[in-house]
């Protein structure tokens, strides 16, 4: 068996220092526009929703305003649903699925639940189609007090006044072929470890919370999404991305201890969606539709089972 080629930055077995991080940053290229793809859509949505700036990122020479969207007619007697997208900027349908949900389906829940949507948590990474921020830090391992990623800290500040009121949180993600070809090797190189090859599942799956499992909630989402796109099967070890499958299309992570976005609210119902955009059986439209279907199914199940 041929050993994989070493990652082109750094020395195998040695964690990156400042020079390696600077070299990595110099190689990042802007491929798309946060302003064109996200901010302009938010400007149009502002006629129907309250759009607020909740933070700013300063990655000189680039600066980014972070936006969240609330429904009009916010009521203190209603629970809150949080929807987040683009925690990993390269996971495109998370961003566009959140925006599509706002445009097409959010009005269905008026007077039933308060909606708070942060459609693009990591705009620098969105533009560069990357997993990390400009400091080579993964925001989705940084959702903890005094965490190293400002993307994560800004979102935590936004939701802090609402803790105790969240009924659910849906965090929209993707698993892509580049996880295996680029991002896992880069992570191993950055940390001075050896990259271990893995398998990318073909299909949609969910990540439940080990510390607060909600199997019926996850099943309701899987049922809804299966009408839009296919669900990822377990591999021959009964796993998806090296985690045991607990029910079709569902694995579990310890959300809070891993610093994952889906662990920040303390909500009863939480999930992380994982769309597979590189499947020959899925189109970009299906990927966005799958994210919308997941959000709607999550809200509807939570409203039907509030206690």
From TrEMBL:
Residues 30-302 form the Peptidase M14 domain. Coiled coil: none annotated. Transmembrane segments: none annotated. The active site is at 274 (proton donor/acceptor). It comes from the Bacteria. Belongs to the peptidase M14 family. This is M14 family metallocarboxypeptidase. It comes from Steroidobacter flavus. The lineage of its organism: Bacteria, Pseudomonadati, Pseudomonadota, Gammaproteobacteria, Steroidobacterales.
């Amino acid at each position: 068996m041929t050993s994989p080629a070493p990652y082109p930055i750094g020395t195998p077995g040695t964690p990156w220092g400042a020079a390696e991080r600077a070299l990595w940053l110099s190689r990042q290229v802007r491929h798309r526009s946060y302003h064109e793809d996200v901010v302009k859509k938010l400007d149009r949505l502002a006629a129907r929703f309250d759009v607020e700036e909740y933070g700013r990122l300063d990655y000189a020479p680039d600066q980014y305003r972070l936006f969240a969207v609330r429904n009009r007619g916010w009521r203190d007697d209603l629970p809150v649903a949080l929807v987040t997208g683009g925690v990993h900027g390269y996971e495109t349908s998370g961003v566009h699925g959140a925006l599509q949900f706002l445009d097409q389906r959010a009005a269905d829940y008026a007077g039933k639940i308060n909606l708070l949507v942060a459609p693009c948590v990591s705009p620098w990474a969105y533009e560069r189609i990357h997993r990390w921020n400009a400091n080579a830090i993964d925001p989705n391992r940084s959702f903890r007090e005094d965490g190293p990623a400002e993307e994560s800290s800004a979102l935590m500040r936004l939701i802090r006044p609402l803790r105790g009121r969240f009924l659910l949180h849906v965090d929209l993600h993707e698993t892509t072929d580049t996880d295996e070809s680029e991002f896992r090797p880069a992570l191993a190189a950055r940390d001075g470890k050896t990259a271990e090859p893995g398998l990318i599942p073909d299909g949609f799956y969910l990540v439940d919370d080990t510390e607060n499992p909600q199997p019926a909630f996850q099943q309701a989402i899987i049922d809804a999404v299966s009408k839009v796109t296919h669900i990822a099967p377990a591999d021959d070890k009964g796993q998806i991305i090296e985690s045991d499958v607990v029910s079709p299309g569902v694995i579990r992570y310890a959300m809070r201890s891993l610093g994952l976005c889906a662990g920040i609210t303390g909500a009863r119902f939480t999930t992380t969606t994982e769309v597979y955009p590189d499947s020959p059986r899925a189109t970009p439209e299906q990927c966005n539709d799958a994210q919308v279907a997941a959000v709607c199914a999550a809200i509807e199940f939570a409203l039907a089972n509030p206690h």
